[in-house]
């Protein structure tokens, strides 16, 4: 399944990805033609009500991957490796990645470039397909000083290009960019031979991803904060408003991504 998708992407087809955490939505998303279901550790926020992804465990990711795999047995599933499950050493990363694959993932996503390149290579060499997550990396939200656009300076843009190229050389199947300037995402996409997926990274990426609850317009921040204090990120779009049903909203998103109509400039940095 993953190879078929990569072949389609290489032939110029856009990839439509959405987060998914359970079997019912997995079925809806698969029927609507979503190419990749991301069992994201964003579940810490949208399912568990926390203010970040840092408390999500391997057990959480195994459980939700199983549910999604049950609902969509014929769709590519990408699962996030949660914080502290891969950073320490490549051997631990491999053992945890294999557990997620056994739960139903077809590839795993790890955050960071630099020192994570060796881990990505080790996973790939041992039969685990990898997506590298660059730009704003939510597991480092404290280190990055909040939800901030990355790659704005010439130096940080160059570092991201170098990281993406190193990840591609390490054999990753995809590179995901979160909250980076659209021009930088386009430049990197054109300079590496693996598909790129954007969230707040402009229309120049090979594909797009959104958090399902943002697409439905139902996420209003962590449970300990008042909903009126929450402001949806610039890159999010409520497709339910226009679509009228969940199924239609997801289909509209898939069509908009495939036809290059989403994201628009107003969603990008
Ligand atoms: O966990 C997640 O949902 C993600 C997306 C923001 C890309 O990593």
Primary descriptors:
binds 3-methyl-2-oxobutanoic acid; 11 helices; 269 residues; alpha/beta; TIM Barrel; eight-stranded parallel barrel
Write structural notes for this entry.
This protein has helices spanning 2-10, 23-31, 43-46, 58-71, 90-103, 116-125, 154-170, 182-191, 212-215, 240-243, 246-258, and strands spanning 15-19, 36-39, 76-80, 107-111, 130-135, 174-178, 196-199, 207-210. It is α/β, with parallel strands linked by helices. The relative contact order is 0.14. The protein contains eleven helices and eight strands. The chain is globular. Strand 5, helix 7 and strand 6 (174-178) form a beta-alpha-beta unit. The protein has a single domain (2-267), classed as Alpha-Beta Barrel (TIM Barrel), CATH 3.20.20.60.
Outline the secondary-structure elements.
Blueprint: H1 2-10, E1 15-19, H2 23-31, E2 36-39, H3 43-46, H4 58-71, E3 76-80, H5 90-103, E4 107-111, H6 116-125, E5 130-135, H7 154-170, E6 174-178, H8 182-191, E7 196-199, E8 207-210, H9 212-215, H10 240-243, H11 246-258
Parallel strand pairs: 1-2, 1-8, 2-3, 3-4, 4-5, 5-6, 6-7, 7-8
Helix pairs in contact: 2-4, 4-5, 5-6, 6-7, 7-8
Bound molecules: 3-methyl-2-oxobutanoic acid.
């Amino acid at each position: 399944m993953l190879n078929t998708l990569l072949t389609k992407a290489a032939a110029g087809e856009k990839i439509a990805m959405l987060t998914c955490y359970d079997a019912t939505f997995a079925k809806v998303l698969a029927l609507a033609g979503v190419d990749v279901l991301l069992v994201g550790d964003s579940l810490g926020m949208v399912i568990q009500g926390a203010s970040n992804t840092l408390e999500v465990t391997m057990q959480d990711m195994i459980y939700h991957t199983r549910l999604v795999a049950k609902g969509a047995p014929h769709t590519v599933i990408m699962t996030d490796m949660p914080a502290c499950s891969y950073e320490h050493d490549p051997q631990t990363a491999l053992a945890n990645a294999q557990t997620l694959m056994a739960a139903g993932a077809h590839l795993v996503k790890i955050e960071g470039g630099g020192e994570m390149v060796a881990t990505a290579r080790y996973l790939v060499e041992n039969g685990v397909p990898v997506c590298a997550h660059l730009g704003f990396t939510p597991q480092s939200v404290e280190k990055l000083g909040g939800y901030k656009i990355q790659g704005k300076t010439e130096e940080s843009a160059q570092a991201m290009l170098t990281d993406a190229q190193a990840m591609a050389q390490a054999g990753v199947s995809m590179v995901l960019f979160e909250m980076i300037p659209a021009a930088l995402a386009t430049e990197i996409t054109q300079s590496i031979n693996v598909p790129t997926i954007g969230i707040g990274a402009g229309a120049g990426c090979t594909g797009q991803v959104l958090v399902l609850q943002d697409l439905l317009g139902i996420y209003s921040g962590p449970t300990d904060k008042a909903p009126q204090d929450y402001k949806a990120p610039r890159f999010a779009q409520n497709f339910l408003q226009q679509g009228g049903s969940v199924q239609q909203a997801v289909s509209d998103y898939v069509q908009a991504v495939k036809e290059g109509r989403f994201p628009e400039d107003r969603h990008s940095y």
